[in-house]
Amino acid sequence: MVSFDKNEFRSALSEFATGVTVITTLDDEGNPHTMTANSFTSVCLDPPIVLVCIAHGTHTFGYLEERQRFGVNFLCEAQEEVGAYFAKKPQDRTGGVDYSFSESENGVPVLDGSAIFMDCDVIGSHVYGDHTVYMGEVKEIRRNEYDNPLMFYRSRWYHPHRS
Question: Which Pfam family, giving just one, matches this sequence (predicted)?
């Protein structure tokens, strides 16, 4: 039996500093669809496999199930506003946030200005509770110059180099 509640679990997880990614895929009309996520990790080097966790109640889940392909965009510190914008539900995204997309060799949306982009094909998935864990084989990597990564810690943006 678990001796803690959901809020205590969430609070404990917030103590783990993470990088911030934006997951990209295509919607039903073929337009870019995005979601900010920190549930990303590498799985193995050979073959190059990464993992993302997507909640079942999101649009991203449906589009990823349909497309079986996604992009992972590592955000740099200058993209904090973009990270916050894509963390909202699509219907709640308002305001003048500046961003643009290009396209990978496989047609996956690339968030321009990201530190790193990885184009991934889904090679496996596992349902756990209200999320699906997707394993993606990396097919393409793009790199950009950047100063610092965007980080998240204690449920807010984290800037370790700032005093």
Answer: Flavin_Reduct
State the virtual CA torsion across 61, 63, 66, 71 in degrees, nearest 10. -90
**104: helix, coil or strand?**
coil
* Residue 95 DSSP class: S
Give the pair of three-digit tokens for residue 13.
């997880």
Q: 90 to each of 56, 58, 104, 107, 148, how far by Cα in Å?
A: 15, 10, 23, 21, 27
Residue 148 CA neighbour count, 13 Å, CB half: 12
Q: Tokens representing 29?
A: 């009309």
Asked whether the whole model's pTM tops 0.90, one would answer: yes
In this structure, is the dihedral angle defined by the CA atoms of residues 106, 147, 38 and 113, taken in order, positive or negative?
negative
Residues 118-162 pLDDT 10s: 999 999 999 999 999 999 999 999 999 988 999 999 999 988 877
Q: CA 126, CA 105: separation in Å to the nearest integer?
A: 27
Give Dmax (Cα) for the chain. Answer: 48
Q: Structural domains in the chain?
A: 17-156 (2.30.110.10)
